[in-house]
Amino acid sequence: MNNIENNELLIGDLRKNLLKVSIPTMLGFALQAVYDMVDMIWIGRISASAVAGVTIFSTVFWLVTVLNEIIGASSISLITQSYGKGDIQRTRKVVEQTLTFKALVAIISAIIISIILKPLLSFFSTDQIVLKAALDYGYIRMFFLPIMFSSYSVNTALRCLGDAKTPMKIMIVSSIANIILDPVFMFDKIPGTNIPGFNMGVFGAALATVISTVIAFSMGFYILLKGNEKLKITFKGLFQLDWEIDKKLLTIGLPTGIEVLMRNLSSIATLKFVSIYGTDTVAAMGIGSRLFSFAFMPIMGIVMGASTIVGQALGAEDVDKARDTAKFAALTNIVMMGFLSIVSILIPDKIMGIFIKDFEVINVGIPMIRILIPALILAGWSMGLGSVFTGSGHNIPYLLSSIISRWGIQVPMLFITTKIFNLPVIYVWLSFVAAEIGEIVIILIHYKKGKWKTKRV
């Protein structure tokens, strides 16, 4: 049975369909990024050392998400292509296996990282106040890692079926919960009021985040279990491992996972180079990372929407629609990031001032914002076109682009500018631009080669 007649994303105006599935995703991710920034705003009220500690843990933490990316990228290709073909039974099995297999992987990862967390963090700082903040924030985040992975899975499954509004609603609820709980858990009195809080400091920020994650997973899991006209998972399916599907979950997204690993390792290397310039610079980079993540959310929304349509189009053997979707996604990303770049260039001091009042940190952050945010124009272009790789399951180009841009360009540039010539920290920020230029070049080469047009999973 061919599902194209029943799949609204493959019928009608391409631009309208892409925006229909992308805008809710963008809004959901943007609000999620907002609560990440709210976290940092509240943490900034404690001290620059607290910001630095959370920054160090967050950099290490994203190493673990490599496993989430491997299975997540694989599941996008498998779910969208199965659904595009009209194979509902296989679609259901893939969703069930993604949930179960990812949870198992997360449990193993959480145990291992928790054991080595303290020595791992000590690599970046010997400041005991910074390390204490990192550990206070970190241990509870690791304990709830399986729930975090599973919450991503339920939202991805719904988006792959063309339902972007439900994940958006879930993310809105969990984000609001986090924003409300942050000051309640962190301070002895909620700022601006006489309402007593729990005074847990950075641990309170982490606790608010994990509670909101539990809420997000619970809502999404209930919706999938309850089912709708598109899909209904079963408890029985969740307790049965299917090696044929599990092997594909590990292998299809493996290049994407290695790509994320290489990117995250380069972030760790970058943080090590940044730490040469002191705690204020590490704190500025922590704020910059949250801002970068927030600005990146519109790109992610468009790319996830485009990957869904590309995967379904390729499953239905409509290569032209897949290509046109990727091109429109790239153009949309360029326009959005161009607008954000203008704002970042004009008022970087005011943006930094939202997060922290420390003049030294703000002074370091101004050139950082003016350089990092405009670099997202290139990232949006490459990721928009790259949606053909995620949708098709041909993920090697992402791996190559990451290795070459981060390890062939950025890290050597950082070593030369900081270790050999002892240049100012602005050259650290410029290394991000150099890496993005390298990345778009590699993506364009492989996009034009066209292997994605014939790749199927």
Automatic annotation (TrEMBL):
UniProt-listed PANTHER family: FMN_FAD EXPORTER YEEO-RELATED, MULTIDRUG RESISTANCE PROTEIN NORM-RELATED
Location(s), subcellular: Cell membrane
Species the sequence originates in: [Clostridium] ultunense Esp
GO cellular component: plasma membrane
GO molecular function, one term: xenobiotic transmembrane transporter activity
InterPro entries from the UniProt entry: MATE_fam, MATE_MdtK, MdtK-like
Membrane topology: Multi-pass membrane protein
Annotated function: Multidrug efflux pump.
Transmembrane segments annotated in the record for this chain: 21-44, 50-79, 99-117, 137-158, 170-187, 202-225, 291-314, 326-347, 368-389, 426-447
Alphabetic keyword roster: Antiport, Cell membrane, Ion transport, Membrane, Transmembrane, Transmembrane helix, Transport
Assigned protein family: Belongs to the multi antimicrobial extrusion (MATE) (TC 2.A.66.1) family.
Keyword Ion transport: yes
BP terms from Gene Ontology: monoatomic ion transport
NCBIfam families: matE (TIGR00797)
A Pfam family recorded for this sequence: MatE
The protein, known as: Probable multidrug resistance protein NorM
